[in-house]
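Dear U.,

Please find below the material for section 3 of the report. The protein was modelled together with flavin mononucleotide; I have listed the sequence and SMILES used, followed by the predicted complex structure.
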Amino acid sequence: MKTSLCDLLSIKYPIISGGMIWCSGWELASAVSNEGGLGLIGAGSMSPDILREHIKKTKIATQSSNEKNVFGVNLPLMNKDIENNIQVVIEEKVPVVFTSAGNPSIYTPKLKDAGIKVVHVISNEKFAIKAQEACVDAIVAEGFEAGGHNGKEETTTLVLVKQIVDKVDIPVIAAGGIASGEQIAATFCLGAKGVQIGTLFAISKESSAHINFKKAVLASKEGYTKLFFRKLSPTRLLNVVAKDISQTFFSQVEEAENRGATKEELLNLIGVGRSKKGIFEGDLQNGELEIGQAASMLNEIQSVKQIFVELKAGFDRAIQKIS
Ligand SMILES: Cc1cc2nc3c(=O)[nH]c(=O)nc-3n(C[C@H](O)[C@H](O)[C@H](O)COP(=O)(O)O)c2cc1C
């Protein structure tokens, strides 16, 4: 499974756990890095102090007397604490930063001057070219299937990865809908040099998401996720179908969008702290539950170690089938 991305990021397997608010704390990030992938701390919901704490814990958990595994931090660029969080990753000498949701030209030079490898997440061709012009080291091409925030073009991973690989000269990391080794192999056939996986790791044992959230994801079936908020920032949400839960946030958003609610109405409906309520506190009725289409492929809560065993075996099976 080794690719040029492994050399670039000093990792054994080109498998990255996406930075995910309320899921990717130090436990998930260090578990993924210790399996030979790249674990990312999701700083989207973290203040500078909390981020520093998670970095310090990840450093301890990924170091032993004879080994030091690389980890990274995801910094959504629209975050209100972005200036201070950039300072924290520089001071703590974090080796890799994945930026998302914003303009990569603003902070990439500063991060690179500090010796940090920078990877930027994009969802269309225009942003991929801008990221390359900003001199990032690699790009994550994240398709429509993905959990969390999504591109306005709604381009699927299969289309997006091929399109971006043909347009840029830097390594492309595929993301969106990948939850098996066979799917990793498929993206490599398109020219991707690595994968960023969210949904599968979001319900792992080491994810800091609430158990109610993980169980709701496991109970979901094909078609249970839907892209909302196209007028704001398109976001894929999970529908919870359970006898004892009605009038969920999902159903309220669906009703509002069906009647053509304005941006202001939608912003009022979202309010503040919705994703924390849903993902971290496990409030399935009032919380915002972000997850990708791959949710319907998942059958159990696994440890990161088990996930790696299965991803590697699936990848080998796929390569055999192709050859
Ligand atoms: C619960 C959840 C939270 C996420 N939060 C973030 C985030 O804070 N920053 C970010 O860049 N991407 C975020 N993402 C996207 C992931 O990093 C990753 O790119 C995406 O989940 C990949 O698609 P997949 O879910 O189909 O594997 C999130 C995804 C999920 C499922």
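For the text of the report, you could mention the following: Residues 4-206+298-322 form a domain with the TIM Barrel fold (CATH 3.20.20.70).

Regards,
Y.
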